[in-house]
Design a protein that fits this description.
Chain lengths: 140, 142
């Protein structure tokens, strides 16, 4: 990929992070308050809704275009298979998200905040990624 | 409408727009766990690591800027004990690897393109999140 598109990628990462901070997704307590049915704070529902809607509006146009501005074919997943790996993985992720209040994107966006917790989070998430990759690579 | 709802709507719209722009410019799904995994396990996507690395650097750099210059947006309140937090982080890593995506990849991009796998994934991880936090709250653990 050309340096110009690597720079665009850097800017896109920055914009992604900015959206997370503005929305409040980066604050673990907000996530906890959203997941706590006993004292429900619906704020985060207001994040996912416009995010999905905006993507949904643009996606058909992008799909029709098919070629990204870097000149290569867009890579759009086409799997429709609902399998155990998807469901078990998603449930384990949900439990982990509930225990930490942090999903991967806010974890990475918060990386520079200097707290010990975020280093622990990234470190143990990395261990989990390698563990799961190793286990599923052995099975296949 | 409370400010947090308005900020949620604005931030969410930025997230959806960034997802669309990532597809337009780079031709890829904006999924944090997928992008991170591609850097951690580079042979999964041969010759395709550089854009991921720059995307992640952009995320961290913006995090640094917000923390230093706009601290009002960088609130980070965390009261969990490490006995729950550390296994939780490990489970996040395992889960997103097997589910092939997290809140951004499945939640925003996947549901945005009406992928059935993503709807199932979101139902499972949000459901598990609600149950986990609500049970811990009722037990008085957090």
């Amino acid at each position: 990929m050309s340096p110009l598109f690597l720079f665009f990628s850097f800017l896109l990462g920055g914009l992604f992070s900015l959206g997370l901070f503005i929305s409040g997704m980066t604050n673990p307590q907000k996530v906890m308050d959203f997941f706590n049915v006993a004292h429900w704070d619906p704020s985060l529902a207001f994040v996912l809704f416009p995010a999905v809607l905006v993507y949904m509006i643009f996606f058909p146009l992008l799909k029709k275009k098919g070629i990204a501005l870097d000149g290569k074919k867009m890579q759009i997943p086409n799997s429709k298979e609902i399998n155990h790996k998807l469901i078990v993985g998603a449930v384990l992720f949900g439990i982990g998200w509930g225990l930490t209040g942090i999903c991967p994107a806010p974890g990475l966006a918060n990386f520079a905040n200097g707290s010990l917790q975020i280093f622990l989070y990234i470190g143990f998430m990395v261990l989990g990624i390698y563990f799961a990759h190793f286990v599923s690579a052995r099975k296949m | 409408m409370p400010t947090s709802y308005v900020m949620g709507l604005i931030g969410g719209a930025i997230l959806g727009l960034t997802g669309a722009l990532t597809m337009l410019f780079i031709g890829r799904i904006m999924g944090a766990s997928g992008i991170f995994k591609g850097v951690l396990i580079p042979h999964l996507h041969r010759g395709d690591v550089a854009w991921r690395l720059f995307f992640l650097l952009g995320m961290v750099a913006m995090g640094w800027i917000v923390n230093n210059y706009f601290p009002q947006f960088a609130q980070f309140e965390l009261h969990q004990s490490n006995w729950l937090f550390i296994p939780g982080a490990f489970l996040v890593g395992v889960g997103v690897t097997w589910a092939n995506g997290c809140t951004s990849g499945h939640g925003i991009c996947g549901m945005g393109r009406l992928s059935i796998r993503s709807f199932v994934a979101v139902a499972c991880f949000c459901g598990a999140g609600f149950i986990t936090v609500t049970i811990l709250s009722l037990l008085g653990v957090q």
